[in-house]
Amino acid sequence: MSARRIRIALLLCDTPTPSILATHGDYTKIFGTLLEQTLPPNFELVLDPYDVVKKMEYPDDDKLKEYDALMLTGSAANAYDKIPWITKLVSYIARVSDPSTSPHPQLRIIGICFGHQIIALAVGSTCERTPGAKWEVGVTPITLTPLGKEVFGVEGDELNIQEMHRDYVPAVPPQFHLLGSTDVTMNQGMVRYFDDSTSQKPTQVQILTVQGHPEFTEPIVSEITKTRHAAGLMDDATRDDAMRRKDWRNDGTIVARAVWRIFGDV
User: Fold this and answer.
1) In Å, how far from its chain's centre is CA 170?
2) Which domain of life is it from (predicted)?
3) Whole-angstrom Cα distance, residue 30 to residue 13?
4) Distance between start and end Cα atoms, the chain
């Protein structure tokens, strides 16, 4: 049996710092590594990058029909900033995520951290600073909802995900379902189904988001933490706590496998 080819348009919302770029590659490489690492034996991945920041490039309507999914990366930018590339990104996602206006109504959309926040804004929700501008950094236990346990295919009540944010989505938009929470961030991930009246099967997921970074590894998070601390963006206590947890179990591959399940039996 030939492998099923899954085509994903990766909307690059940032560029890694020079030190991470030199050691781990750009975000196309980082996301590609995670997705290839968890690739089911009957699937084949095609990952096409689009620079939505500097080039503000997107797949046009005809090209979009060739993709199975859009994936939005994280970013050091604030999703709520009214600057041209972010405004364009929110408008684009608003159009292609709405089956009534999308040229590809069966398109899946996956949002990671900043991407999670952009999707929330695109569907009419909000994004803002966490209370007290508190950071969540490093491996963080997420308390899963019953649906979250189903979506991620786990039996336990928690999932450990690398985090790097101090903005959050403070609500669950209409027609979306919550996957998990922390004490700082109520909405740590969400899903919307193509038809909310149908059974909630993985293949019926239209939108899947997570606030954390399944693509990040310990060396990447440690480097970002040190860089932001050195720049005065992160206090000593936040850095030290993240470093204390740096060797905790990282369940990023579990999130990636959940992504693969939305495309069919794996």
Assistant:
1) 16
2) Eukaryota
3) 13
4) 14
Indicate the Cα dihedral angle 96, 258, 250, 110, nearest 10°: 0
Provide the CB-side half-sphere exposure for 82 (13 A, CA).
Answer: 0
Instruction: Give the model confidence (pLDDT) of 101-141 as tens digits.
Output: 999 999 999 999 999 999 999 999 999 999 999 999 999 99
CA distance 262 to 87: 28
pLDDT digits (tens, 9 = 90+) for 61-96: 999 999 999 999 999 999 999 999 999 999 999 999
DSSP-derived 3-state class of residue 144: strand
Tell the burial category of 235 from Cβ atoms under 10 Å away from its Cβ (0-12, 13-18, 19+).
exposed
Closest CA to 145 of 134, 156, 132: 156
- Is the Cα dihedral 141, 261, 56, 98 positive or negative? negative
CA dihedral of 261, 63, 27, 169, whole degrees rounded to 10? -70
Query: Listing from the earlier edge strand, what are the strands of the sheet with 180-181?
Result: 158-165, 136-144, 180-181
pTM: 0.97
3-state secondary structure of 43: strand
Reported confidence tier of residue 196, pLDDT bands at 50, 70, 90: confident
d(CA 187, CA 197): 22
CA–CA distance, 206 with 194 (Å, rounded to integer): 5
Contact yes or no for 59/67 (Cβ under 8 A): yes
**Rounded CA separation 120/126 (Å):** 6
> Which tokens belong to 133?
């501008």
DSSP result, 159-176: EEEEEEESEE--S--TTE
Residues 111 and 209: beta-carbon distance below 8 Å: yes
